[in-house]
Amino acid sequence: MNTPKLVLGIETSCDDTSLCLMRGETGSYKTRPTILSHRSFSQDDILKKWKGVVPEIAARAHLDKIPILIDIVFSETKISPEDIDLIGVTTHPGLLGPLLTGINLAKTLGMIFKKPIVSVNHLFAHLEAIHIDQEITYPYIGLIVSGGHSLYMKVSSPKDFEVLGSTIDDAAGEAFDKGGKLMGLDYPSGPMIDKMAKDGDPLKYEFPIGLKDSKDCRLSYSGVKTSLRTFHEKNQFKIDSQEILDQCASYQHAIVSALKLKMKYAIGDSKLPIVVGGGVACNSYLRSIFKESFKDVHFVTPKFCTDNGAMIANYALRTEDEAIAYPDHMDMDAKGRFINKKDFK
Ligand code: KG4
Ligand code: ZN
């Protein structure tokens, strides 16, 4: 066992500002880290008005909230920034303006207190969040389902991620959010569709599964969204009707059925465990269908599924040997993309 280290995790890649002070062993996935403070600010109420993320507004909201959250995490733990060993910050993929606000915070602290910084891949951190409170051995098949990405990966170590397949257009979370917008629901609509679908019939209406016959683990959600639009134009259900609950349940059924079908191709003949992470992994229907359909399936705990600082701190601890010391980390930059979806077409 190596000496536990104290890390500050910073997440600002999209519309959640989140910081976490965590203590844990570096490199290991066999021990659980301790969360000392984990504080977040969600921009959902600000962005509701725009029915989606506006990058400039999101970046400015991060700037407003960062000083407040920094103050809280250090004061409530009575830890001084001088005492931390390491900083982890999301540098990619994400929205450039929001990413830069977090990177600037990391660099400022790194410069003043001469601390090393780990540049964190947000997607890897989503999956590896499984190790915060569960033990899973490598290799495993990972499914990341978030607002911006949907991909299957084979994960052989905290640094060894092989992309098996991706969505070629919209992400699963985008399908929930855009579908919800069409039905007149607030942003983000995923949690609301999940809730409404509980009282609806998933088999009442038929929505298509993208790339159903492709026999690989690529996903496509543009067709299901268009089919919802066409359906909605012909059937304007009232927001408190049984029909809209059935519509939510049926639309969610199509999104989840695609994830289940394509997981079969991702896993192939292997008997590897499955790990599911990212915001959409909170979805209760996805959880129950996967648990019913696959033997060895593990979901990241809901509070670590949607964007959060704990997953960033956790991933920084596991990849601490890649930390960049001051002053070299002053060159650290943001990168919008991780993969090019067009490569999977
Ligand atoms: O991982 P995340 O917080 O942000 C990105 O990295 O994109 O994921 C946000 C996405 C949104 O699209 C939101 O609608 C979706 O996760 N989401 C859900 C649920 N909770 C969050 N989708 C379906 N059911 C849920 N319960
Ligand atoms: Zn995310």
What does this structure look like?
The chain has 345 residues and is of the alpha/beta class. The chain contains 11 helices and 10 strands. A 5-stranded mixed β-sheet has the order 3-2-1-4-5, with helices on both faces. It has a 5-stranded mixed β-sheet with strand order 8-7-6-9-10, with helices on both faces. The protein binds 5'-O-[(R)-(carboxyoxy)(hydroxy)phosphoryl]adenosine and zinc ion. The site of 5'-O-[(R)-(carboxyoxy)(hydroxy)phosphoryl]adenosine has 19 residues, from helix 6 and helix 7. Zinc ion binds next to helix 4.
Structural topology:
Blueprint (H helix, E strand, L loop, with lengths): L4 E7 L4 E9 L9 E9 L1 H5 L6 H23 L8 E7 L3 H17 L4 E5 H7 L1 H4 L6 E6 L4 E8 L2 E7 L5 H11 L7 H8 L24 H13 L7 H26 L6 E4 L6 H10 L3 E3 L9 H10 L27
Parallel strand pairs: 1-4, 4-5, 6-9, 9-10
Antiparallel strand pairs: 1-2, 2-3, 6-7, 7-8
Helix pairs in contact: 2-3, 4-11, 6-8, 6-9, 7-9, 9-10
Bound molecules: 5'-O-[(R)-(carboxyoxy)(hydroxy)phosphoryl]adenosine (KG4) and zinc ion.
The site of 5'-O-[(R)-(carboxyoxy)(hydroxy)phosphoryl]adenosine has 19 residues, from helix 6 and helix 7.
List low-confidence stretches. Answer: none
Alpha plus pi helix count? 11
**Strand order, largest beta sheet:** 3-2-1-4-5
State the helicity in percent bands.
25-40%
Q: Approximately what portion of the residues adopt beta-strand conformation?
A: 15-25%
**Average pLDDT, all residues:** 95
The molecules bound to the chains, other than polymers, are:
5'-O-[(R)-(carboxyoxy)(hydroxy)phosphoryl]adenosine, zinc ion
Going by helix content, strand content and strand pairing, the class is alpha/beta
The biggest sheet amounts to: 5 strands, mixed
The number of E-state strands comes to 10
Element string (H = helix, E = strand): EEEHHEHEHHEEEHHHHEHEH
The first-to-last residue Cα distance is 45 Å
Radius of gyration: 20 Å
Shape: globular
